[in-house]
Amino acid sequence: MATRIRTFEEYRAEYERSVKDPEGFWAEQAETFVWRKKWDKVLEWDQFEGPKVDWFKNGKLNISENCLDRHLETRGDKPAIIWEPNEPNEEAVTLTYKQLHAKVCEFANVLEAKGVKKGDRVCLYMPMIPELAIACLACARIGAVHSVVFAGFSSTALADRINDAQAKVVVTSDGNFRGAKNIAVKAVVDQAVANCDCVDTVIVSQRTGIDIEMVDGRDFWWHEEVSKVSDKHEAVEVDSEDMLFILYTSGSTGTPKGVVHTTGGYMVYTDYTFRNAFQYEENDVYWCTADIGWITGHSYIIYGPLLAGATSLMFEGVPTYPDAGRFWEVCEKHKVNIFYTAPTAIRALMAYGTEFVEKYDLSSIKALGSVGEPINEEAWEWYHKNIGAGKCPIVDTYWQTETAGFLIAPLAGITKEKPAHATLPMPGIQLAIMDNEGNEIEGNDVEGNLCIKFPWPSILRTTYGDHERCKNTYFSTYPNKYFTGDGCRRDEDGYYRITGRVDDVINVSGHRMGTAEVENAINEHPNVVESAVVGFPHEIKGQGIYAYVICDAKPENEEAFRAEVLKIITKEIGPIAKPDKIQVVSGLPKTRSGKIMRRILRKVAEGDATNMGDTSTLLDPSIVDEIIEGALVPVKQ
Ligand code: WT7
User: Fold this and answer.
1) Which of 2, 120, 437, 493: CA 20 to 30 A from 262?
2) C-alpha to C-alpha distances, 99 to 93, 324, 408, 452, nearest whole angstrom
3) How many domains does the chain have?
4) Is residue 538 part of a domain?
């Protein structure tokens, strides 16, 4: 295993070196991997715009070989993945590095037999079963590009993503055991694929045994196909800058964008950040509770941990099934040493009280992690005291789908934490806090918009099929800088605290949602003329969704109308995008130029109309009173 930072002084020194000599620094990190051909140049970039960034230029490698083959000699019999099923009484599955390697090779052979070639896109729409991780690694092994779509998305959302990526193969399962539910997964794929001409093959992993339809010549069972092929496969050589995956994420506009990550830089950065932030030791059992459908699962269930030769636990179920002790039961059962979850899960479990925690022996845990949104102090303290026995470090990791790896995070046990602060940048991450005029704000005790002013190895390379969009979204607000979309404070000690999104993106239970996306779905209702969606503080979810809707004809039964809107959203996006509140209004607060003043809508949704600011530029200021009057929350005036 590569060396890792051991002390705070080492962190300071390593950070400084990563800024003074980024190429030397990252070359050293990259040395520990298997390269079929070494790079000519560590980093090439002209202007930090667009971006046009090459890491490990002309290097040739395969990331699946680095995750698996590289470890076979030294860690062949070590568990690579421990899979814990939804039901506590179903047996867990352990795949050693050797076994995982064999399964990945088999499935790589299946994909090749189905005609998948280097550069082709494969869409994975699957529950949290080992086959999902196997399918990702098999794609990587043959140089195909995976596009994992979270299995909670609707068939419409899935079809959009399949078509955007022009995927020729979809891998799925028959059903999904999730909590008390048995969800039909293949049926969603059938509906989606009916609108996707690009798809010629669907491979189905059997999980729940529900009846499904199999289309002759298009659909194949996973278990039948793997039984026909060998479990040996020579990994395909790819270029360091060849695409590894596409992952769709929401932004300020109505259509999700396909964030593109490439191979070499992603490999080096996810491995480095995983080992250093969590201070992973050789025999630790590490558990990240995220879904592989999000970036957290890509980078810190699959790639980061396996590159580091770690044991990564994968969980099929939910935190509250069969009861609110499930997480802690699993921690005890598998002697989890490092536990990584989201603030929304912590808050949800807090509400059930500590009796569900006290039943279990959590003494194996030595480090905790948090991701997805700022962790509020109360949740931090609860987590620290009850799960971490008051002594485990909490690694609050701030990052994004686009960054693919941690940007700001304490190193477990090394960086002194401060609740609700992501603390300090990872080596290689050069942060800048910007004011609205485009100037960098220097010094401590300051606040502004968070940017990064130098490329790091796992920065997004483009948004699939639309490079202009990538340029406009991330590199145009502040020339020559990557803009995160987040507000940030640098406190008197130089610690960073993320204050939340400054764009039209909301964060619901750690899931990123574009307000425009939700509005587009609402507007599909025949009686809706216009809508405006904002986020509001929500005790468990972090942010809830509040929708203001103008109707053509005032609905006779508002309850029924709301139910119809929710149904449309479930169909267009998925249940995760359902608003908590839908208020029917006769108008929206608009400026004379027609721009909706969302600030006002946010204030009302927050239940505080005391400080509305200047409303004199509104076309019709009286609409504000009507909105306050009809608000679905008590509003302080
Ligand atoms: C947005 C990115 C990173 C993987 C999961 C979400 C927010 C994420 C933190 C944190 C404060 C955080 C930011 C960011 N965020 N982690 N530790 N502290 N905010 O990935 O869907 O790409 O969302 O999540 O607002 O921009 P994502």
Assistant:
1) 2
2) 11, 33, 35, 40
3) 2
4) yes
Of 192, 213, 245, the domain-final residue: 245
d(CA 196, ligand 1 centre) in Å? 31
Mean pLDDT of the chain: 96
**What pLDDT is stored for residue 49 in this prediction?**
67
SS3 of residue 299 by DSSP: helix
Specify the DSSP class assigned to residue 376.
Answer: P
What is the band of 394 on the pLDDT scale with cuts at 50, 70, 90?
Answer: very high
pLDDT of residue 616: 83
> Residue 400: CB within 6 Å of ligand 1?
yes
Atom 16 of ligand 1: nearest residue by CA position = 372
pLDDT at 242 over 90: yes
535 lines ligand 1 (CB under 6 A): no
pLDDT score recorded for residue 67: 98
511 CA → ligand 1 middle, Å:
8
Ligand 1 contact, 374 CB (< 6 A): yes
For residue 1, pLDDT beyond 70: no
Average pLDDT of 383-403? 98
pLDDT score of 255: 87
501 in contact with ligand 1, CB cutoff 6 A = yes
CA 399 to ligand 1 center in whole angstroms: 5
Ligand 1 pocket, mutate which of 507, 509, 517, 543 (most atoms under 8 A from CB): 507
Q: Which of 417, 429, 512 to mutate to test the pocket of ligand 1 (most atoms within 8 A of CB)?
A: 512
Choose among 388, 130, 132, 359: nearest CA to 122. 132
Residue at a domain's end among 181, 216, 245:
245
Task: Write down the pTM of the prediction.
Answer: 0.96
**CA separation for the pair 291, 274 (Å, rounded):** 17
- Alpha helix positions (H), 523-583: 558-572
Strand-strand pairing, 394-397 and 431-434: unpaired
Q: Is 507 in the pocket of ligand 1 (CB under 6 A)?
A: yes
Over range 302-306, report the average pLDDT.
Answer: 98
Q: What is the pLDDT of residue 253?
A: 82
For ligand 1, atom 17, the nearest C-alpha belongs to 398
In a domain, 115, yes or no: yes
* Three-class DSSP category at 475: helix
498 lines ligand 1 (CB under 6 A): yes
Residue nearest to atom 6 of ligand 1 (CA): 372
Q: Is residue 100 part of a domain?
A: yes
Cα–Cα dist 351/540, whole Å: 9
What CATH number does the domain containing 519 carry? 3.30.300.30
How many Å apart are CA 238 and CA 259, to the nearest integer? 19
Q: Is residue 518 part of a domain?
A: yes
Which domain covers residue 199, as residue numbers?
Answer: 95-245
- Per-residue model confidence as pLDDT tens digits over 272-284: 999 999 999 999 9
What is the average per-residue pLDDT within 366-370? Answer: 98
Residue nearest to atom 20 of ligand 1 (CA): 400
Ligand 1 centroid, distance to 401 Cα (angstroms): 8
CATH number of the domain enclosing 193 = 3.40.50.980
